[in-house]
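EI: anyone free to look at a 208-residue chain?
SC: sure, send it
EI:
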Amino acid sequence: MMDTEALVCVVEDDAPLRESLINLLRSVGLQVAAFASAQEFLRRPHPEVPSCLVLDVRLPGLSGLELQQRLAEADLAMPIIFITGYGDIPMSVQAMKAGAVEFLTKPFRDQALLDAIHQALAHDRTAREQRAQREDLRRRYRALTPRERDVMARVVTGRLNKQVAGELGTSEAAVKVHRQHVMAKMGARSLAELVRMADRLGIPTPQV
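SC: here you go
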């Protein structure tokens, strides 16, 4: 089953093939945005929905591999399916090492392309959900006061409230209150969950 809320971007300079790809993808209910060059694609805003890129390797001006590099440098993650009539093994290896989902040599079966697109869209949906979760976690952490962050950094190492109080020069009762605030603001239901959050945030462990 294809994702009708997703977008497939096609970059192909061969007009008949481009139209053929558009018709194929629309026939299975996919939204398509097609471009004749990499430069034309780069002028479009990055999609806000799960998406993937069907990209010809050999294009006028900026090549498909160069576009892949540009997107990586700009941190614009988008799963890429390369298509080419001139594929060779080194080119395929280069594309796959740089993160391409698939590398299809023309002529390819329609189903092979659709399967690759399905895989790419599923990958992008998962990646977007993970990015949204990380950003939500960072947003919650930013809501902590400096003292609450100090307490969090210590309690996730297994320190007792008494030890944290000694290190921060405050009372055990104050640490307990800060700890409760940290748990509430971070949405952590247990110390173990808070530890996992700290690990995902990359919070450095204070030295004794």
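EI: The first helix runs from residue 15 to 27.
SC: 👍
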